[in-house]
Write a structure and sequence with these properties.
The structure holds two protein chains of two kinds. Chain A is mainly beta. In chain A, 0% of the residues lie in helices and 53% in strands. In chain B, a hairpin with a 6-residue loop joins β4 and β5. Classes of the chains: A mainly beta, B mainly beta.
């Protein structure tokens, strides 16, 4: 149980275009999801907290107009990287609070974004 | 104060050996300490977790040792196998915040 699915697993886009990444909780409802960014051989950095039915909360230094988050249902959060640039290339991972409403967090398998 | 320091950065162990990864924290408000395993190109998967009310927790070949007074915790992988070769992250959280502070990761390689 408590499976989190991300789609796509890999995406390549051209500079200046926008890319949408989906994060779904498959067998439970997730009122809260989280988006992370991970650079090669580095740790996970929390970008934002996605709350169903309300605005996302962004961590300091994360551009909310560049990384648009929408949590329109209890099982789906989306991250849109707008006007992507090569420096946005990274591994993006989402997580969700499990059905018990308590830790641990359940992570998706990540999306490798490459901006050319 | 929000940092979690993890060491070593990389570790090479012979098959059958014990792998030990250490983490230290400063924030005494942290009360949940999970360990995650991550394979290349995949998301982190929970291995084992501990709360400060116990000093040790064992699940199969994985053991967490927790020293509350020293604000340190460690992961021991017994009988390490080549399939354990991955990056391991410790994390810390204050319950209810869901804001995990991750360590910097340890790349483990188990030689066959």
């Amino acid at each position: 149980g408590a499976v989190v699915s991300q789609h796509p697993s890999r995406v390549i886009c051209k500079s200046g275009t926008s890319v949408k990444i989906e994060c779904r909780s498959l067998d439970f409802q997730a009122t809260t999801m989280f988006w992370y960014r991970q650079f090669p051989k580095q740790s996970l950095m929390l970008m934002a907290t996605s709350n169903e039915g309300s605005k996302a909360t962004y961590e300091q230094g994360v551009e909310k107009d560049k990384f648009l988050i929408n949590h329109a249902s209890l099982t789906l959060s989306t991250l849109t990287v707008t006007s992507a640039h090569p420096e946005d290339s990274s591994f993006y991972i989402c997580s969700a609070v499990g059905p018990s409403g308590d830790s641990p967090l359940h992570f998706g398998n990540g999306t490798r974004l490459t901006v050319t | 104060q929000q940092q979690v320091k993890q060491s070593p950065q990389s570790l090479i162990v012979q098959k059958g050996g014990i792998s030990i990864i250490n983490c230290a924290y400063e924030n005494t408000a942290f009360d949940y300490f999970p360990w995650y395993q991550q394979f290349p190109g995949k998301g982190p998967a929970l291995l084992i977790a501990i709360r400060p009310d116990v000093s040790e927790k064992k699940e199969g070949r994985f053991t967490i040792s927790f020293n509350k007074s020293a604000k340190q915790f460690s992961l021991h992988i017994m009988d390490s196998q080549p399939g354990d070769s991955a990056t391991y992250f410790c994390a810390a959280e204050t319950s209810g915040t869901y804001k995990y502070i991750f360590g910097t990761g340890t790349r483990l390689k188990v030689l066959a």
